């Protein structure tokens, strides 16, 4: 099943006081609430990694596979806590490990090593994924013989 990531999920990952502390610390006069922007950024990162595996079909709208919900929560918690001043280092280390584990899981989805449920309603959206050619080998193209006389 594909789901929308919401503030409720964020409050499941962090305590209510942590969310409110973030809002208070991150807002200057006239500044918009940063939470919706963070949620959208995390959703886009997850959708991009899901789209990297050509066998995956994307869900409609700004939805993510429910298998990635814990990864999304870890990423949101990390993004928020790293923006707050004066964090407890032990809390920081725990959240960083969760975020790194989440990114490893998303990388396995991108490589098609982890299988996700395909959506009931596919999206028409085209998501750009990085395209690169991996070149390996150590055969030299330019040798002394080829370059002699230059």
Overview of the molecule:
- The longest helix is centred in the middle third of the chain and has 22 residues.
- The mean pLDDT is 82.
- The protein has one domain.
- The chain has a two-stranded antiparallel sheet.
- Helices cover 50% and strands 4% of the residues.
- The chain is extended, with a radius of gyration of 21 Å.
- It is mostly helical.
- Helix 1 packs across helix 4 and helix 3 runs parallel beside helix 5.
Quickly give the structural class: mainly alpha
Question: Fraction of residues in helices?
Answer: 40-55%
The proportion of residues in beta strands is under 5%
The overall average pLDDT, rounded, is 82
Query: What gap, in angstroms, lies between the N and C termini?
Result: 64 Å
Instruction: Give the ordered list of helices and strands.
Output: EHHHEHHH
How many domains make up the 3D coordinates?
1
Helical stretch tally? 6
Q: What sort of overall outline do the alpha carbons produce when their principal axes are compared?
A: extended
How many strands, what sense, and barrel or not for the largest sheet?
Answer: 2 strands, antiparallel
Rounded to the nearest angstrom, the radius of gyration is: 21 Å
| Low-confidence parts | none
Q: List the strand order in the largest sheet.
A: 1-2
Report the strand count. 2
Task: Give a quick summary of the entry.
The protein is mostly helical and 150 residues long. The chain contains 6 helices and 2 strands; from the N terminus they run E-H-H-H-E-H-H-H. It is 50% helix and 4% strand.
Identify the notable features of this structure and list them briefly.
mainly alpha
């Amino acid at each position: 099943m594909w789901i929308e990531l919401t503030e409720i999920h964020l409050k499941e990952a962090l305590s209510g006081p942590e969310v409110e502390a973030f809002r208070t610390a991150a807002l200057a006069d006239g500044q918009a609430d940063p939470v919706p922007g963070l949620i959208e950024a995390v959703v886009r990162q997850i959708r991009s990694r899901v789209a990297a595996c050509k066998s995956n079909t994307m869900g409609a709208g700004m939805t993510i596979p429910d298998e990635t919900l814990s990864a999304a929560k870890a990423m949101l918690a990390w993004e928020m806590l790293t923006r707050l001043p004066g964090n407890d280092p032990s809390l920081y280390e725990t959240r960083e490990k969760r975020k790194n584990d989440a990114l490893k899981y998303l990388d396995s989805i991108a490589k098609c090593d982890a299988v996700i449920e395909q959506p009931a309603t596919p999206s028409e959206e085209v998501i750009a994924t990085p395209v690169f050619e991996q070149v390996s080998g150590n055969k030299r193209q330019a040798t002394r013989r080829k370059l002699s006389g230059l």
